[in-house]
Structures are given as C-alpha cells and as structure tokens.
Design goal:
Length: 151
C-alpha cells in the first residue's frame, strides 16, 4: 500500500470547512436560516423588566462594645442561634452542603448567618419572624449593643 501525497489526502478528506468553501450557496442559506432562527428565538423569549429573585440568606449583626469573644458567644450568639433554630424553613444540613445557621463571635461583635430552604415560598415573612424572635432575645444587663437582620 503506497503512501498518499498531501494533495491526494486533501482531495479525499471531507470536513465542514471544505464543504462550505465548495458549496457556497448551501452555506449561505444555512447561515441565514440559523440567524433568522436565533432572531426569532430572541424576540419570543420571555422577558421581565424586574424578575423576582428570592433572597434566601440574611445576617444578624449584633454589636457589644467592650465584651470579649467568649462573652459575646455565650450571652448573645448562642441565644440568637437558638431563636433562629426554632424556624422550620432553615436549610437542612447535607453532606458537603451548607447549614441553615452559621455564626462568628469576635470581641464586641456577633454575626449570625441564616440560610433558608430553596423551596421557601415567602422568605420576607420568615425573615420578619426571625427578626421578631431575635428582638425578644433576653439581653445581658451590661449589654448596650444593638442587633439588626440584614438581607
């Protein structure tokens, strides 16, 4: 079996670039068809000026100037976590996934992050309930800080 030259290989090889060059009319018709199809799809695509994107995460930030991290953890963070954990719409713990509650306590500051289930229908109502529960949290007598839930 003798080896073929490059020119013989090129003549026998078929690919889309070669076909497009050899059959210009078919290529142009296909290109116009694809462009028209794309324009039709774009014009008939559903569009909303302001799409609804539910916010499923919030943070409770509590300041307690002058308190050390251990005081903040014991007297503020854990109590807020317990109040938030009463809600049934929190994201469930899954292997390799996020938990519904995360927290960070440092000197003078407590940050508690809340994540809701993706199937939650009214997150605003649930965050309002969480905010009310957190506001009813008994506060230490020496605490002069404030708390707020940020969405």
């Amino acid at each position: 079996m003798p080896h073929q030259t490059d020119s013989e290989l090129i003549l026998k090889t078929r690919n889309s670039a070669r076909f497009s060059v050899e059959h210009r009319t078919i290529s142009c018709v296909l290109m116009v068809t694809v462009l028209a199809w794309g324009l039709y799809a774009y014009r008939h695509m559903p569009k909303r000026k302001d799409p609804e994107i539910p916010v499923l995460a919030a943070m409770a930030v509590c300041r307690w100037p002058g308190a050390n991290a251990q005081q903040v953890e014991q007297l503020v963070t854990r109590k807020i976590e317990a109040r938030i954990a009463e809600n049934s719409d929190l994201q469930r713990a899954s292997p390799g996934g996020d938990y519904g509650i995360r927290s960070l306590s440092v000197d003078g500051l407590s940050v508690v992050q809340v994540l809701l289930e993706k199937s939650t229908t009214d997150p605003q109502k649930i965050f309002t309930e969480i905010n009310v529960k957190a506001a009813r949290n008994p506060q230490p007598a020496e605490w002069s800080g404030s708390h707020r839930i940020h969405q």
